[in-house]
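Structure ticket #2291
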Amino acid sequence: MSPDLLRTALLCVFSLLVVFAGVRDIVSYTIPNWVSGALAAAFVPAALICGVPLLPLLEAAGLGAAMLVAGMVMFALKWMGGGDAKLLAAASLWVGLPGLAPFLLYTGLAGGLLALSLLALRSAWVRPLVVAGPGWLGRLATPGAATPYGVAIAAGALAAFPQSLLTIGPHAAF
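Resolution: structure written out below.
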């Protein structure tokens, strides 16, 4: 396999896993641990194949650890679920310091859109229309139900990826 093909395949792993996490969260309110684990595990070979120098690689690891701690605090405060906290940390590895601000901004914007969408879905006018649909849609439409924030994290990660550690600088994959 050529280095470019391998690099592209590894970078596609990021997109596929975050999309899977977002979809899984919206239909089941869970993000499996293996998804965040696979994201974290795939980051190292992707970074090495993309030629990321050691210092930015270590910075990304520190950022991932810091975001995991922040996620754990938000989980303890019941602001987000445990899967969301782990996804936030794993995605932070991939965006690194260069993509952190866009990642947080896009995640916050996507979270706001998600909240507005859920408010509309849970309204007295729309809810009766969706309750007869798939079970996951009925759960989403239930007033007071949790917010699948993994959707916003996935959207933020995908939107910030062009500014990420692996896509900018002299070692950039694209």
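Closing remark: The chain is about 75% helix and 0% strand.
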